[in-house]
């Protein structure tokens, strides 16, 4: 409660014990705002299903399983919003020796991505020196038959990709690079034996391209939201995903439509989905 309400934990404890000597009015104002927000959330907010096993998710699972079983490199790349990140997060759950790291502009250099991997592996007090980090990580993952997944891998420069490639081979584990089309096209430029990416490209055993949301994905989402038998709602949902919205935008639209339905004590309808989409686009009244 202290963290979510913005109140100092010690101050909250003293307040609850009746011996807080600070600004009580200010503290109570923050707590009141917090509980009001929780009340609105309970009354109106509709949470999306935690994970929906779509056809695309199953396709990604197969690539991840292949990479781990075969101890090889693979890529999963393509359109944003089709569920790549959700799928790899779900794959990691309940599986031994599967490590997931997300690259970003601030965590893309060789030293930074190695440090992120070390943290994911539970290496305490990980050093910041690249050579030491790389050796510690290799020692930790060798013999595990594990799988290292790098999400948003399109942020990684050649130096980081090459280090990961060498580490994967030496430790004999699976390595999957996930991201947009740059993950694939950058390495495909190495099809020439004289290109710097050639060694990387020659070692990628499987490439999985996902360039659009499958109709089966949309139907799976409709099923999860209890809308599988509503043909009009399904048509609207498919139009959202087919016009570049993807599953991410569809889920956000359904959440907003669900809030409107819950507030009116109604079920989600095609009209509510259309209105929610227009509102998200800034075209609502």
Written account of the structure:
By secondary structure, the chain is of the alpha/beta class. The chain is 56% helix and 10% strand. The chain is built from 13 helices and five strands. It has helices at 2-5, 9-16, 24-44, 55-70, 84-92, 110-120, 130-141, 158-171, 182-188, 198-201, 215-224, 231-263, 270-280; strands at 73-78, 98-102, 147-151, 174-179, 204-210. Strands 2-3-4-1-5 form a five-stranded parallel β-sheet, with helices on both faces. Helix 8 (158-171) links the parallel strand 3 (147-151) and strand 4 (174-179). Helix 6 (110-120) packs parallel to helix 7 (130-141). The model has no long low-confidence stretch (mean pLDDT 89).
Topology:
Layout: H1 2-5, H2 9-16, H3 24-44, H4 55-70, E1 73-78, H5 84-92, E2 98-102, H6 110-120, H7 130-141, E3 147-151, H8 158-171, E4 174-179, H9 182-188, H10 198-201, E5 204-210, H11 215-224, H12 231-263, H13 270-280
Parallel strand pairs: 1-4, 1-5, 2-3, 3-4
Helix pairs in contact: 4-5, 6-7, 6-8, 7-8, 11-12, 12-13
């Amino acid at each position: 409660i202290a963290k979510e309400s913005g109140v100092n934990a010690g101050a909250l404890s003293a307040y609850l014990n009746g011996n807080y000597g600070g600004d009580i009015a200010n503290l109570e104002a923050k707590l009141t705002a917090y509980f009001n927000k929780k009340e609105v959330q309970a009354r109106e907010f509709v949470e999306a299903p935690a994970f929906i096993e779509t056809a695309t998710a199953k396709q990604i699972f197969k690539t991840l399983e292949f990479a781990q079983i075969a101890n090889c490199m693979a890529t999963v790349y393509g359109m944003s919003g089709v569920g790549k990140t959700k799928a790899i997060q779900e794959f990691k759950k309940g599986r031994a020796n599967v490590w997931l790291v997300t690259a970003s502009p601030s965590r893309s250099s060789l030293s930074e991505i190695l440090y992120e991997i070390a943290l994911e592996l539970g290496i305490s007090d990980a050093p910041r020196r690249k050579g030491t980090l790389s050796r510690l990580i290799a020692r930790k993952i060798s013999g595990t038959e594990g799988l290292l997944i790098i999400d948003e891998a399109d942020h990684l420069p050649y130096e980081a990709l090459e280090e990961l490639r060498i580490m994967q081979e030496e430790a004999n584990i699976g390595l999957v690079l996930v991201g947009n089309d740059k993950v694939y096209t950058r390495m495909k430029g190495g099809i020439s034996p004289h290109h710097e990416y050639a060694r990387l490209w020659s070692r990628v055993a499987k490439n999985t391209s996902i360039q659009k949301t499958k109709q089966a994905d949309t139907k799976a989402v409709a099923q999860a939201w209890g809308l599988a038998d509503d043909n009009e709602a399904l048509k609207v949902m498919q139009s959202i995903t087919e016009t570049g919205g993807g599953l991410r935008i569809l889920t956000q639209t359904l959440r907003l439509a669900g809030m409107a339905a819950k507030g009116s004590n109604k079920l989600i309808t095609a009209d509510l989905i259309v209105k929610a989409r227009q509102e998200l686009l800034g075209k609502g009244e």
